[in-house]
Amino acid sequence: MDCNSKKPMLGFSPELFEERRKKVFSKLDNSVLLLSSGSVKKKSRDIEIPFRPDSDFFYLTGLCEPECVALLRPNGSDGDLILFVPARDMDKEIWIGERMGPSEIKEQFGATEVYERHQLDQYLPSLLSDVDKIYFRIGSDRHVQDLVLSSISSAHLPKTRGSGRLEGILEPGYLLDEMRLFKDAEELDHIRKAALITSESFEEMVTYCRPGAGEWELEAALEFGFRRRGASGAAYPTIVGSGANSCVLHYSDNARRMGEGDLVLVDGGAEYNLYAGDMTRTFPVSGTFSSIQKAVYEIVAGAYKCAIEHLEPGVTLADIHQKTVGNLADGLLDLGVLEGSTEEILEKGSYKTFFPHQTSHWLGLDVHDVGDYVKEGSSRVLEPGMVLTVEPGLYFPPSTKTLEDFFCIGVRIEDDFLITDNGCELMTSPLPVSAEEVESLMGA
To answer: How many angstroms separate the CA atoms of 364 and 269, rounded?
Structure first.
């Protein structure tokens, strides 16, 4: 992915962003939506972290420039997109490359009007006057936030009888989260590509998995695979946890050498044109599982299989999670880790010691994408166009050291799925899930 604005919209059609904005305009009434693209962050002194635009901002504009502000407001039967963008700086462009100016951005990104960023103070207050609500994320842009708060203060000054009154600031997610939850055809193409790059890179990475190798070597091999296949890099910090580290859910130090007999849990995803892939596999470092490792692994694999068998429209997220934890609870009973009945374990939640997270999360522009998991007080019903993960796991961290035989075993299996009209589509390409297939892959 190249966020240089000289390469507009990252391969998306301009009509896509126009259609999205039309949906927003239809919901605004006498309100406005204000989004900031974000700023370039410093790693240290004069070293910058590669810029990535705010997901909501990109979703409605297609623009990948830092320090931009987008204002969407209704206007007659349609609406206006007004952009504030940085002025061109020829001295800076010697170092960072050529950028588009306001006139080019207006032409290529379908804006009604484009101003330079320094003109915010001049134009934004009047654009925010006499509106009912301002949709703006507090903390996203301090300069814009100050102007928004100033507008609210001005709106509450005494006015002539009958004049409008600004009701307040609302989170943009009220308008956009539901839209972003349902993926359009172009988005699905990009997610499929991110998922394919992810799974192919996983398969390639396995060849570096051996006793004595560093967790960082698998991280490097996986992320090299992402870049070699056209991704911009990792969608989130890659997790490579061996031994006890496999039980740390978001471990990302990746600083341990893998030992004989260890399991290693790898959780990573490529980012392709800002869209994320997300996959997890657990491998025996020596090539084969021990009997206890295999027993734990097969319980997780069974829960994974059960969950995806129930992925279809009309099923709730709670249904999928309950199927998963039911399988895991049965397995923990069989292992002698828990006692009682499955019903008692589920009621008390005692399985959470070993499976503390949910089975699924939404996937899209963000790896933990937007969208409510509960709607109108009930678990969300799956519908065509939703993309989500399935990721059961079992973990026996040092805190469970009384379970000596299971000490430091951590297993998770994760793939990405699209809900279709008739069921689901596996978006990550098939990578071994059964214990025997994983051992065969390691041997190959």
So the answer is: 12
The number of angstroms, rounded, from the C-alpha of 151 to the middle of its chain's C-alpha atoms is 33
Give burial (CB, 10 Å; 0-12/13-18/19+) of 410.
buried
- pLDDT digits over 198-237, tens only? 999 999 999 999 999 999 999 999 999 999 999 999 999 9
- The first and second tokens of residue 293, run together, are 């490792």
Q: State pTM to two decimals.
A: 0.94
**Count of H-run helices and E-run strands, the chain:** 13, 21
Q: What is the pLDDT of residue 160?
A: 43
Query: Tell me: the pLDDT tens digits for 72-81?
Result: 999 877 899 9
Max CA pair span of the chain: 80
Q: What is the identity of the amino acid at 76? A: G
Identify each DSSP E strand in 31-106 by its residue range.
32-36, 42-44, 47-48, 69-75, 78-85
Active site residues: 46, 250, 267, 278, 357, 361, 368, 391, 395, 412, 414
Element (H, E) at 280: strand 279-284
